What we know:
Layout: E1 2-6, E2 10-15, H1 29-32, H2 34-37, E3 41-42, E4 51-57, H3 60-71, E5 76-84, E6 90-100, E7 105-109, E8 116-131, E9 134-143, H4 150-157, E10 179-187, E11 194-198, E12 212-224, H5 228-233, E13 238-247, E14 253-262, E15 265-275, E16 280-288, H6 290-297, E17 307-316, E18 319-325, E19 332-339, E20 354-357, H7 366-369, H8 378-381
Parallel strand pairs: 4-10
Antiparallel strand pairs: 1-2, 2-4, 3-4, 5-9, 5-10, 6-7, 6-8, 8-9, 10-11, 12-16, 12-19, 12-20, 13-14, 13-17, 14-15, 15-16, 17-18, 18-19
Amino acid sequence: MEILYxxxxxxxxxxxxxxxxxxxxxxxxxxxxxxxFGRLFPVHRLDRGVGGVMxxxxxxxxxxxxxxxxxxxxxxxxxxxxVEGEVPENxxxxxxxxxxxxxxxxxxxxxxRQGVREAVLTFFKEGxxxxxxxxxxxxxxxxxxxxxxxxxxxxxxxxxxxxxDGKYGSRRKAAAPALFAASLTFRHPKSGKMxxxxxxxxxxxxxxxxxxxxxxxxxxxxIAYPDTAALAAFPGACRKEITQTYLTxxxxxxxxxxxxxxxxxxxxxxxxxxxxxxxAAVEEERELTADEYAAALKKADPALRPVEKTxxxxxxxxxxxxxxxxxxxxxxxxxxxxxxxxxxxAALPPCLAVVKEVTGDGRYRxxxxxxxxxxxxxxxxx
Length: 382
């Protein structure tokens, strides 16, 4: 089980499908982690067939504080689901739900009565897949209420059952309902700081129909403008011409499309990022057709200009160093290196003169360069 964070008060994990959120046995998250962390107190739950980000308290006082914060609406959760049918680009469901405990099933009903509760969620479409069996949509869901089986019941009730969710009418088989708790934001009960955690989508059907998902860990360096002849002569070097356009996206995410030209071929790639910290981000990526790319450009964020760059990829020391040359700079460039872990380090080749590391300087992220370009005096930076 992946542990995203732990301190004296909290333990944040990625719950695997198949484990219970509560309980003491080895088939529950608290039971599975008891030897490592002692007693864990659940403050929210995921169905056994649903995986994703969960937080557990390590004491009763912390559990009470987290529960009160959640009840006050201070938590923000995002789920990703794969549903049957062509959903709208975005939408809002507001329904009355009744949960039948004997059947362990939730129903949409027409009028209030005892046991009926209002349920509200919003969503937007992230992807589309079509085959001979029909259309599937990948949606990102933001529930405003927390009812039993809420997402499963509401989407099914509106004609879009989750893939693999036979209980709610899905015709497509899968190992579990296609629902994943992708991110969770809450205020730390002791420090008062906002905590945000996310996890990549599982690489299993049907999530894998929509491209790859993983954690990107990279360090970024501001370098003096390099000798392009030295880059071209570097053993194994590859040159790419890239134009990336940022699209409108929910808060906390960046969404971009890229046109990448290399070796006489052109690729189109869509990338969604949810940043964990300065070093790491959850990245979801998929290939686009030329028509899909053209359609995506119509959703460009008007506040962000397209970013054009020449990228040199240099294999060095077991890594690939990516050197980005931008047309708005003549004295500097940016070098990036992707790492296997946050503790790993990497050396840059001698042909690159490092001014400073800018991993934690948001001004040098591409999304910020699309808005504003820094022109600091490099002499003062060395």
